[in-house]
From TrEMBL, chain A:
Protein name: Bardet-Biedl syndrome 12
A single BP term in Gene Ontology: negative regulation of stem cell differentiation
Top-level division of the source organism's lineage: Eukaryota
Gene3D superfamilies assigned to the protein according to its UniProt record, in alphabetical order: GroEL, GroEL-like equatorial domain, TCP-1-like chaperonin intermediate domain
Pfam families registered for this protein in UniProt: Cpn60_TCP1 (PF00118)
Gene Ontology MF terms: ATP binding
GO cellular component terms given for this protein: cilium
From TrEMBL, chain B:
Name this polypeptide is given: Molecular chaperone MKKS
Record-linked InterPro entries: Cpn60/GroEL/TCP-1, GroEL-like_apical_dom_sf, GROEL-like_equatorial_sf, MKKS, TCP-1-like_intermed_sf
PANTHER family tied to this protein: MOLECULAR CHAPERONE MKKS, SYNDROMES PUTATIVE CHAPERONIN-RELATED
Membrane-crossing segments per the record: none
Principal localisation: cytoplasm
Organism, scientific name: Loxodonta africana (African elephant)
């Protein structure tokens, strides 16, 4: 084994440069209007359409150490919170260039680390003032929206059109939809390079100013003619009521007093309002999530028989079922479990329909040679035949017959299997009118176990009367099932039982390449709403928190410039070191660079939403408001006062800038703060790294151009 | 067909230390360990260069894990470092840096190796005698009636590892948790011999550090929600526990070599399963409430047990077996045959707990000597580093109970010790040399090398600045590297490395690397003053003392090498 040690140059920090160049690739994902990317494999000519950092990093070559760390950070954020990866990736880029600038200016590394992390902590304390409590959301949930059984209303999902759907826009939508359908042909014709261009152009449709303006005029005219205005916010008491401006004119401080009579208007206690605010432009996905929450809520109410009991939105009981190739109008959420089965079971489903069936839940595989985990089959055991009684049937046949006997004995017509299912057994069961479904998610099994009283078993031989569940209904998902058949000849069926706390979102779309994106977007919205409900608070969003951080940092930067040496407001652990004295010297420099990260975030956000022709122009707008906010003395009250104006300019997509009643935009609290923290942690981790130690056979693999500056041990 | 090949002759290298290659690799190694040292140490990315896991660290134990050195001289060094770390957890880098410094500093000195070694030994015993004596001015006795010093100790360890990525608030939180986890391992009823329990670190990656917590008893992760729903068991009194270390999965892996012939129709699986169910019957008869197995329990046995209201937890893993056995008093059962009732143990209660996305069984013992530290950090790299650091801290606390002292940290002990040695060798050389054959000049030379090795070790703590020492206590003071020559030191310096002294105390300073005029380092250590100072940086007494010895002895060993003979076959 040879070990090499590579010293990373001090002034020109390679790691930081790598970080910022990786992060640059994800800039277009920021904000409500995302431009998708095509990633094409030169060798296999395979391509994927992506629009999230997680998918981007999955497709990039990240063999470098820094790339790995970045991927690890993004994955960790995604698996913990399911949202915030865009923010994370952007700030990794912004702050790694900030740290590099500081290095160029000769700021010692410990000072950068110290000031940056204290600066972020200080911002985290500051943004508490923009938290909006989320209370009593379900007091107002009216039951007019009840979705019953199979007649679940469909919610349209147009991927690239993220303005509230409205009658006035349908014409426009149709045009867009036509475009997307012609596109399908291209993408299926196996010429991804060509379709790549087309997709981009489609993605850019919204960025196209002309289109925007027409949309805007549409909205405006609609607004003028209020009689025909049918807003999505119809349930919101705030947006239709006249006291809408009251919270705006009421400066600062009120947000901290939940429970007071006035606070009711300032907290968010309407599910629709919350959902729209958290949708970040993706209204169609959020509508689905919202509907899913309502279904869960109704189920909880029915189970407990009382609407006021505590309800928690359980995101682990939500599933997605993707049906590529099926028209978008079929997108919807349904109570129960929707899954795909082969169309050969059509007659079987018809037979099982309309009657409760008994169910068995199998945790392992349902195959003859399956053994539970931890069971090691001995290889050196041979079965010897003593007599000539050779059985004609194979072992599998014997086993399948045995399984069938058990199913018949307990009158079981439905078997849900977590693992694989033997093809042979499947056929056998079909003949005897029994449905076996494999690869069922563990949480689905759990939900069915709870609702039906079934006990999960590892082997079918374990089944006894106690293990069998009752009262499951199997139906086709739609009344004309053969209309909805995916490419693998599978159709969707629905499994339901009384009181099951399970909701499936069916995602459909004509373009197969978009399914992944659609699913990702659905989950992003689901997690956003989940955290808002779980934490019972949200941030005033759309850039408000970022703007506050920016102005807060500018203020403390100015303060520390004035106070000079005595500005040691932050107690430091290494108070003994020279750090204490040099901190005061460098603090303004480092804080300025840290604040620039937020500045860049805001201007990129605005540029991406296409309301500004350049990032520079957007930056000027931010700068103007920043100066006003600082001059006002209290940026947080400035933001609250000017929210509607800022919202239209900075925080909102700019589409509805002429509207007086702008829906408030919200952000999740912990996922956002954590994304910042993870981004900074990663940057500081790389900043403090001075060498790479390559273990193993690195010696032979390192190219000659790379081996410069490498030391061997 | 076997093939014989002539053996290659062994390679013999004389005076390995004079070789340019050895010097170069030694200095690379020194560069790596030196740059890692201290709270502002630089981190290293360890990876295999082919997309494997990346470990970002500045800890000796993590470095040693993946450092593979080729030359025997380096192997001696890393081996003794490894040995030290496995015994004391702390001060691994200290050993390596000091050892490298000692070797490097005597390179230019024209003395026989034996003389150097002899004198190094004398100086070492001078140091250890002083550090162990009552007169020692750089150690503080630990007052167990307050948590002050112990907290400082844990905080010092946590801050010395920057790759943990903790803010000040998080350091405070984690150090309080570590201390609490440690205190829970001390039995309440202490006899003559105290047997400390164990703290188990339970991973919870991806969560905020501030979400970490400590629980008395043990946490066992489980994915089986169904079992959790059986809780709580309504039962007065303790729960009876059976603990298995043998697999109950129903397989027969010990069939030995050769093939086993079985007649058709005979199922070995069923035979084993029957045996398992019999075992289950016995457990039910013996009124067992909780069955735990290191390995896997057969689903049928689990089903049988749960139908009799016995909770079965499997796949506990080998690491938890020993503390589980200790905590419950159960003897791990190693056979499927009849079980002796004497091997059963008990727990006070069994609950369920949920943290992040994980579910746990929480076992609460009758007498708490086992604690679980549920440790969170945002990503894998930082979590691994934090885990190692917390383990070090827990170990250091154990060592501190044995020898209730701490050293002043932040480089102050090293600079103070150097000042003491310098003063002693100049003023009382006779008492050091005693009857040995070395001259005073030789002593002076080697003492200078020894002291500057200690001082540059302290200097390694500072990566961006320069070091001063005061001429009263001999403590460590750091200053920015390009400070003007004539300055008002008290304004520029704030506190010394360990935090005991302030720059306002009318001291005089000199650069550590400048020429030295020996002085008598004073003892200013009223215990009260030390205990009242809230933010002291302190080091583990036992680990540092042993580290000093290991470093000097390893350096002596390497200096003593005359030949390296390598078998190249």
């Amino acid at each position: 084994m040879v070990m090499a040690c590579k010293v990373i140059n001090k002034r020109r920090h390679v790691g930081l440069q790598q970080l910022s160049s990786f992060a640059k690739t994800g800039r277009t994902f920021l904000g409500p209007v995302k431009s998708s990317k095509f990633i094409i494999d030169e060798e296999s000519h395979e391509s994927v359409l992506i629009s999230s950092p997680v998918r981007l990093l999955e497709s990039l070559d990240l063999t470098s150490a820094v790339g790995q760390l970045l991927n690890e950070a993004v994955q960790a954020q995604n698996s913990t919170y399911g949202t915030g990866t865009n923010t994370l990736l952007f700030f990794v880029g912004a702050w790694s260039s900030a740290a590099e600038e500081c290095l160029h200016l000769g700021v010692p590394i410990p000072v950068i680390v110290s000031v940056m992390s204290e600066g972020l902590s200080s911002c985290n304390e500051e943004v508490v003032s923009l938290q909006v409590p989320v209370h009593n959301l379900f007091d107002h949930v009216d039951n007019t929206n009840t979705f019953s059984g199979l007649e679940t209303p469909s919610v349209n999902l147009y991927p690239f059109l993220q303005i509230p759907s409205d009658t006035g826009l349908i014409q426009k939508e149709h045009e867009l939809k036509d475009v997307s359908q012609t596109m399908t042909i291209y993408s299926l014709s196996g010429r991804p390079v060509k379709s790549c261009k087309l997709f981009r152009s489609q993605a850019k449709v919204e960025a196209d100013k002309n289109v925007l303006q027409t949309l805007q005029t549409l909205i405006n005219s609609r607004h003028a003619n209020t009689s025909c205005r049918k807003s999505v916010l119809i349930h919101s008491r705030h947006f239709n009521s006249t006291d809408n401006n009251q919270w705006i004119s009421n400066p600062g401080g009120f947000l901290e007093q939940p429970g007071a009579a006035t606070s009711k208007t300032h907290s968010c206690n309407d599910l629709v309002e919350l959902a729209v605010g958290l949708s970040h432009g993706d209204h169609s996905s959020m509508k689905l999530v919202e509907a899913a929450v309502r279904l869960q809520y109704q189920n909880t109410c029915m189970q407990q028989g009382n609407g006021t009991t505590a309800f928690t939105f359980d995101v682990s009981r939500i599933f997605t079922c993707c049906l590529p190739g099926v028209p978008e109008t079929y997108t919807c959420v349904c109570p129960g479990y929707i899954t795909l089965v082969s169309i050969s079971s059509t007659t079987l489903i018809k037979e099982l329909k309309d009657q409760p069936v008994r169910v068995v839940l199998v945790q392992g595989d349902l195959t003859e040679n399956y053994c539970h985990l931890g069971f090691n089959k001995s290889t050196n055991i041979k079965t010897v035949l003593e007599s000539m009684k050779v059985n004609q049937d194979s072992a599998e046949e014997l086993w399948a017959n045995h399984v069938l006997q058990i199913l018949i004995q307990f009158n079981v017509h439905l078997v849900l299997v977590q693992g694989n299912v033997s093809e042979h057994l499947n056929e056998k069961c079909m003949y005897s009118k029994r449905l076996v479904i494999g690869s069922v998610n563990g949480s689905v099994m759990q939900a069915f176990a709870e609702a039906t009283g079934a006990i999960q078993v590892a082997y079918i031989t374990q089944v006894n009367e106690d293990c069998v569940g009752n009262g499951v209904y199997v139906t086709f998902w739609k009344s004309i099932p053969l209309d909805i058949v995916d490419k693998k000849n599978r159709m969707a069926i629905l499994l339901k039982t009384e009181g099951i706390n399970l909701v499936t979102a069916v995602l459909t779309g004509p373009v197969t390449a978009q399914m992944q994106t659609k699913e990702d977007r659905f989950w992003t919205c689901a997690y956003r709403l989940y955290y808002a409900l779980k934490e019972q608070k949200v941030f005033l969003g759309g850039g408000a928190v970022e703007f506050l951080c920016l102005s807060h940092l500018r203020i403390i930067e100015e303060k520390s410039l004035k106070k000079g040496n005595h500005a040691c407001s932050w107690r430091l652990r290494h108070s003994s070191s020279w750090l204490a004295s040099s901190l005061a010297l460098y603090r303004p420099t480092v804080l300025k660079r840290l604040a620039n990260g937020w500045h860049r975030y805001l201007s990129t956000l605005m540029y991406n939403t296409a309301s500004y022709s350049s990032e520079f122009e957007a930056g000027t707008f931010v700068q103007q408001h920043l100066q006003k906010a600082i001059d006002s003395g209290s940026p947080s009250s400035y933001i609250l006062n000017e929210y509607s104006e800022l919202n239209s300019g900075v925080f909102n997509s700019g589409i509805s800038s002429k509207l007086e009643q702008i829906p408030r935009v919200y952000d999740t609290v912990t996922p956002k703060i954590e994304a910042w923290r993870r981004a900074l942690d990663l940057v500081l981790l790389v900043l403090q790294t001075d060498s790479e130690i390559v273990t193993g056979h690195g010696h032979t693999q390192l190219g000659s151009q790379e081996s410069e500056g490498i030391l061997f041990l | 067909m076997s093939r014989l090949e002539a053996k290659k002759p062994s390679v013999c290298e004389s005076k390995p230390l004079t070789s340019e290659r050895v010097r170069a690799t030694l200095s690379v190694l020194k560069g790596i360990v030196t740059s890692c040292y201290g709270p502002s140490g630089r981190l290293k990315q360890l990876h295999n260069g082919a997309g494997g896991h990346v470990c970002t660290t500045s800890q000796s134990s993590a470095l040693l894990h993946s450092l593979s050195v080729t030359h025997p001289v380096l192997k001696i060094l890393t081996a003794s470092m490894q040995n030290h770390v496995s015994c004391f957890s702390d001060c691994g880098l200290f050993v390596a840096i000091l050892c490298c410094n000692l070797i490097e500093n005597v390179q230019g000195i024209d003395l026989a190796p034996t003389t150097i070694i002899e004198l190094n030994k004398l100086l070492l015993s001078l140091c250890t005698d002083y550090l162990k004596s009552e007169a020692c001015a750089c150690r503080i006795p630990v007052d167990f009636s307050s948590t002050q010093i112990l907290l400082c100790l844990v905080q010092s360890i946590l801050t010395s590892k920057p790759a943990c990525m903790l803010t000040r608030k998080e350091v405070d939180h984690i150090s309080a948790l570590v201390l609490r986890a440690f205190l829970l391992t001390i039995p309440e009823k202490a006899g003559d011999h105290i047997i400390l329990g164990k703290s188990i670190i339970v991973p919870l990656k991806g969560q905020r550090v501030i979400d970490s917590t400590v629980l008395p008893g043990m946490l066992i992760e489980t994915s089986e929600v169904q079992l959790i729903r059986m809780l709580p068991i309504k039962k007065s009194g303790a729960l009876k526990v059976a603990l298995f270390c043998v697999s109950l999965s129903g397989d027969f892996s010990d069939t030995g070599e050769g093939t086993l012939a079985v007649s058709y129709g005979v199922s070995l699986e069923n035979a084993v399963l029957d045996q398992l169910v019999n075992l289950g019957r016995q457990l039910v008869r013996d009124h067992i409430d909780l069955v735990m197995c290191q390995k896997v329990i057969h689903p049928s046995l689990k089903q049988f047990l749960s139908s009799h209201q016995v909770i079965a937890i499997d796949r506990i893993g080998v690491t938890l077996m020993e503390p589980l056995s200790k905590m419950t008093g159960a003897q791990p059962i190693g056979s499927l045959g009849s079980v002796s009732p004497r091997s059963y143990g008990s727990v006070k209660d069994l609950r369920s707990a949920e943290f992040g996305s994980k579910r746990f069984f929480h076992l609460i013992p009758n007498e708490v000597t086992v604690s679980s530290l549920l440790l969170c950090n945002r990503n894998d790299t930082a979590w691994d580093e934090l885990k190692l650091t917390c383990q070090t801290a827990l170990h250091v606390l154990q060592l501190t109970i044995k020898e209730p002292f701490v050293f002043l940290g932040g480089g102050c002990t090293e600079t103070h010790l150097a000042a003491y040695v310098r003063h002693k060798t100049l003023n009382e050389p006779g008492s050091i040399l005693k009857h040995d054959g070395c001259t005073q000049t030789e002593l002076q030379l080697i003492a200078e090398a020894f002291c500057s090795a200690l001082e540059s070790l302290a200097g390694s703590l500072e990566h961006d600045g320069e070091i001063l020492t005061d001429r009263k206590y001999g403590h460590f003071w750091s200053v920015q590297s390009d400070s003007p020559a004539v300055v008002n030191w008290p304004d520029l310096l704030s506190r010394c490395g360990c935090g005991l002294h302030s720059s306002q105390e009318e001291l005089s300073w000199s650069f550590l690397r400048s020429t030295h005029h020996p002085f008598v380092p004073q003892n200013c250590l009223p215990c009260e003053a030390a205990n009242s100072a809230s933010d002291l940086t302190v080091d583990c007494f036992t680990a540092k003392l042993s580290g000093l010895q290991v470093a000097v002895e390893t350096a002596n060993l390497i200096l003593d090498l005359a030949y390296v003979i390598e078998d190249t076959n």
